[in-house]
Amino acid sequence: MNSPRPQPDPPEAGGGFKPVPFVVTFVVMMATWVALSGKLDIFHLSLGVISCVIVSLISSDLLITTSTFKGMPGLWLRFLLYMPWLIKEIILANIHLLKLVFHPRLLEEINPQIIEFRSRMEDDMALVTFANSITLTPGTITVSLSVFGDYVVHAIDDASAESLPGEMEKRVATVFGEAHG
Amino acid sequence: MIFVSLLIIAGGIFFFFAGAVGVIRFPDFYSRLHPAGMIDSMGLLLSMSGLALYVLSHHGLTGTNILTAIKIILIVIFVYLTSPTATHAIVDAGIRAGLAPWTKKKNGGSDDPSH
Hints:
Chain A has 181 residues and is mainly α. Chain A is built from 7 helices and 3 strands. Chain A has 2 domains: 69 residues, no CATH class; 104 residues, no CATH class. In chain A, a hairpin with a 4-residue loop joins strand 2 and strand 3. The interface between A and B is large, with 33 and 42 residues.
């Protein structure tokens, strides 16, 4: 019943305090606090510090799961470069869908279908980013995604279905430094 | 500059309208989510960036106004993070409940009153 666990957590300090994720979480929280409050006097800043310390203590191990940060600045930079391309794709797909919405013979134009493909990317974050990018682009919605990279996508017509996985996967793979295919 | 921002906001509202029309016109549960995603992505992007531009151009480039514009852009960023997750949850619920998607082959491409 009340037996102690065999090995609490010897070398890697599983549930212990990890300073690096704590500091990173705190900095992100504090930047958000300052941006949202807009007040820079001692009173509001100290309130922010207190709440950010509490929240970071509780949730820093949820927000940041990896303990290494090598390659992080480059990843964020490449992700920022990916954003304009994604927004361009979203705009193009929106215009395509806009034509469909106002088409007089809508039911002849659309061809809803479920397509499946497999991505060779391995990083969880890369897979989720790709899935969210697919859903964010109108005309395609990710139905399910397995840990092995099996995607099931609902596409509204042939043109939307043809574009997958295609260039978007290549770009996401480049962002996360993964092999693609 | 105000006219530009008003034009962008009007474009955003047009996309909201088109999304609503699409939700009514599309044939089934899954395909209706596509125009709903259009509201989330394009309507929100255009109307919020128009509002940010309006705040900056009409009220001047002061610190408070820049902060307000950043907050407005933060709305877009947070919705872009959460909206695909919500859409995926809805689709997943439909698949788990066993609802078959509307397909052209099955429904013949004509107006089927049963759908």
